[in-house]
Amino acid sequence: MNKLVIADPGKCIGCRTCEIACVLAHSAADAMVRMSPASFHPRLMVVKTTTVSTPVQCRQCEDAPCAVVCPTGTLVLRNNSVEVIPSRCIGCKSCMIACRFGVIEVLPCEATLADWPLSSRMHVEAVKCDLCEHRASGPACIEVCPMKAISIVDAIVLAEAARKRREHAAMVQAAFGPGDSPGQAST
Question: Residue 50 pairs with which residues in a beta bridge?
Fold first, then answer.
């Protein structure tokens, strides 16, 4: 089972601290000097409506439609997540179209000559949540969220959540009796 980062919309206040932490975690040390609205690209996006605010990021899908449609193998299932191999990306945007959550972007980036052997030093690459695999302390968004609305989910967390839901369902069923439901009374 792939692990993923997920947010609780009931706790999120829409402060966008997670977006800033994400950008900083994926930037060079001197990037803040050159940072601008045009170069600010977090790997999660806080969605705000009149009724909800919550960060949305890659769900590391088991069937990964983005990886299935990628003609160059840029997106691969590996290490319990969907990883991006930037040097393979041709910028076709098939992954963006296939993503059910709209969380993949194809962005221009500067490549080193070793990464991109063409004459141009600018190219595009797919960018998505990578679970901050490069950070020993884990995803930066989880670390900085002031409301603790963001957490990492793995097989153990999912199994425990399912166990609690089954237990709750059993208690509800016991309280209302066989054949009854919370919406109907016994006759």
Answer: none
In a 3-state reduction of DSSP, which class is residue 149?
A: coil
pTM of the model: 0.78
CA distance 42 to 24: 9
In single-letter form, the type of residue at position 143 comes to E
The structure tokens 């237990």 sit at 167
Close Cβ partners of 48 (under 8 Å, ≥ 6 residues apart): 14
Tell me the pLDDT tens digit for each residue of 92-140. 999 999 999 999 999 987 654 455 455 455 678 999 999 999 999 999 9
- Tokens linked to 46: 């806080």
- Are the C-beta atoms of residues 158 and 151 closer than 8 Å to each other? no
SS3 77: strand
- Domains of the chain with CATH codes: 1-58+129-179 (3.30.70.20), 62-128 (3.30.70.20)
The owner of tokens 């977006």 is: 19
pLDDT per 10-residue tile (average), the chain, 187 residues: 90 96 86 75 94 95 95 92 93 96 88 50 85 94 97 89 94 80 57
